[in-house]
Amino acid sequence: MLIDRNAVKPDDEDNRYRMADSVQTAFFEGEGNCLLRVLGQNGQPDEVRSFSDRFEADGLVFEEPSVNLFSFNNPYGVCKTCEGFGTVLGIDEDLVIPDKTLSVYEGAIAPWRTDKMSEWAQPLLRNGIRFNFPIHRAYHELTPAERQLLWTGNEYFQGLHDFFKFLEENNHQIKYRVMLSRYKGKTVCPDCRGTRLRKDAQYVKISGRSITDLVLLPITELEAFFQTLVLEEFEWKVAKRILTEIRNRLGYLVKVGLGYLTLNRLTGTLSGGEFQRIKLATSLGSALVGSMYILDEPSIGLHPRDTHNLVQVIKMLRDLGNTVIVVEHEEEVIRQADQVIDIGPGAGSLGGELVFQGNHEQLQTADSLTARYLNNKERIALPKNRRPWSQYIEVRGAHENNLKNLNVKFPLHALTVVTGVSGSGKSTLVRQVLHPALSKLLGQAAPDETGKMDGLGGNLKTVKQVEFVDQNPIGKSSRSNPVTYVKAYDTIRLLYSEQAVAKQRGYKPATFSFNVEGGRCENCLGEGVVKIEMQFMADLYLTCEVCKGKRFKQEVLDITFRDKTISDVLDMTVADALQFFKDQPKIARSLRPLDEVGLGYVRLGQSSGTLSGGEAQRVKLASFLGRGKDADHILFIFDEPTTGLHFHDINKLLTAINALVDEGNSVLIIEHNLEVIKCADWIIDLGPEGGLQGGYTLFEGTPEEMAKSGESYTAQYLREKLKVS
Questions:
Q1: DSSP 293-316
Q2: How far apart are CA 480 and CA 515, in angstroms?
Q3: What's the rounded Cα separation, in Å, for the pair 433 and 186?
Q4: Is the CB of residue 398 less than 8 Å from the CB of residue 405?
Q5: pLDDT tens digits, residue range 400-439?
Q6: Whether CATH 3.40.630.40 fits 217-338
Q7: Could you report the per-residue pLDDT of 126-139, keeping only the tens digit for each?
Q8: Which tens digit of pLDDT belongs to each residue from 450-463?
Q9: Is residue 631 scored above 70 in pLDDT?
Q10: Which of 14, 173, 445, 634 is 20 to 30 Å from 417 by CA-CA measure?
Q11: pLDDT of res. 715
């Protein structure tokens, strides 16, 4: 179809508009194709040029890029292979090659170890020298290209892909079907590489990188990519505004200490502190002014270096014209505040008063607990000596996540602290490698699969039990509370059943329990509140009309001890109860550990659902302290037990933890708090950075040795702390 004839007139605006209109018509009528014939001159043949406005190259037609093409939350952009989960049921490399310290010659490939299947390995062993494949080198030392060659094979041997294809083709035979199932597991989707995006989204690239490449980069590297991105003039005009937003938002994530994460990281795998800092970065990116931000302990899980960066980010939020209120115990955050509001003087019934408000100059003359610790009038004392040790548990060849094939010794009968910047591999080493492996060895239920490592060594028979004291709730039921968890309520119920009136009425200890029928209020089943279901809205909880929140029947409340009913006792704080039961040694002995770990303000009958993570962790610690000396040696593992703790509470906590060690146990703590680090017998420092730049052992030794010779971020801050102490 001939659309138009025209002569080139460069300076004629009307002619340019006419040609543009004709080209647009040609694309429409030609369904994306436009032919331009340039008439020849002086005997030259005509030249025909072909143009297309379709998204194609070399005859291949691609999907037109749109926002939904790059979103896994949209059916259009989701990966068709894994359906947006990022993982598929496939051949698990860790099952095929379980021991990565072995070479191919030594039998690293598990399915090729049998006499029959070893025939698959023989061509590789005989011909490996022909293509320079190191058959005697350990698998973990092979380059990525050499590892890939084992799977793909070449003209000299058939690789693992061909081997498992053979098993699938012969799965009508049960022996091959069983063998195939033995090596299957959840693996990263081969099409989307775990990013959950459809495969053809990877065809669109900026500066040679697809969106899949970018979301798998650590945020620090991703920020550097966009900061150094070079675009042509036209591309820059298109991308300028968007690029500014990208750079700002990535910069905020780095500033709040999350540069080691990838954009592909699942939110379910983030800690509470990481999630809170992501929301903080979001607030900065929105550039709101005149807003009030309330941050609840944003320094949770942060190394002192990252805390310093966090303070700068909070100040940026303030300087934009916002008001920032921070609930915090971290020393540096308090020192950088424009205004300090101190609540006290104590906790629980001893608190609730404004003891100080003002700036730092005024804080110098204040007499609150916070002021005394900040002014060094009170301090957490260094231990008189570091405990020597000779026995240990060793983790060999840990290579889970970002760990770089670590060999680490954890001392026994000592207080050990694992430190390092956020994302350096502390939780991976302790929570994913050491704890599950040791639990399985001791016959205990392991919470997770054991992380990748070569094995455990050392004095394994010394440890009889391992306890991970985490911050999960102490009970799933609302009936669970501190007094029942530490077994003190049994003795209290026995005391009330021995009162004269109780004996006359034949009351047993179970009568004073709100968990069983008998003495409890049957209207609320001993809860003290009644739940009103509101269908599509949140349920309402109303005080029970029958017992008025007392939990028990009136005849049970007639029984008193020193004019206090069993309901009154449950409403007491731990500190008040210790005073009330001071002449009842069994009860006082079971309650005292709660006070020793800094929970004197908690009410005995307080529901476990109202306790913070740090409080729940300390209740668990108190339950172990209440056991006294035990013949079994227990390894206690704590994950940041100082979360939510004031200096004074940390002092109490350290006393309680040291009591566990003095009773013949071992304690291992993952911690950033310098007060805990300086009191350790042994320090294991990981780093030097987070993410891919982490996972190395930087230091193992005492705090004094670290302050003297350590070069890590932890060593720098510890050096200053020990000078003050």
A1: EEEE-TTTT--HHHHHHHHHHHHH
A2: 10
A3: 19
A4: yes
A5: 888 988 999 999 999 999 999 888 899 899 999 999 999 8
A6: no
A7: 998 999 999 999 88
A8: 888 888 899 988 99
A9: no
A10: 445
A11: 92
Provide the pLDDT for residue 272.
Answer: 66
Q: What is 392-471+631-724's CATH topology?
A: Rossmann fold (3.40.50)
Q: How far apart are CA 122 and CA 118, in angstroms?
A: 6
Rounded to whole angstroms, the Cα distance separating 296 from 298 reads 6
Distance CA 255, CA 253 (A): 5
Residue position matching structure tokens 């999630």:
275
pTM of the model: 0.77
Beta bridge partners of 543: 529
Contacts of 251 (CB under 8 A, 6+ apart): 223
Q: Where are the domains of the chain?
A: 1-54, 87-188, 217-338, 392-471+631-724, 482-610
At 365 the three-state DSSP class reads coil
CA distance 440 to 434: 10
Closest listed residue to residue 568, CA positions, set 88, 158, 48, 560: 560
What would the two tokens of residue 289 be? Answer: 């002014």
Position 725 pLDDT exceeds 70: no
Per-residue model confidence (pLDDT) at position 629: 60
Q: State the average pLDDT for the chain.
A: 88
- Superfamily designation of domain 87-188: ABC transporter ATPase domain-like (1.10.8.280)
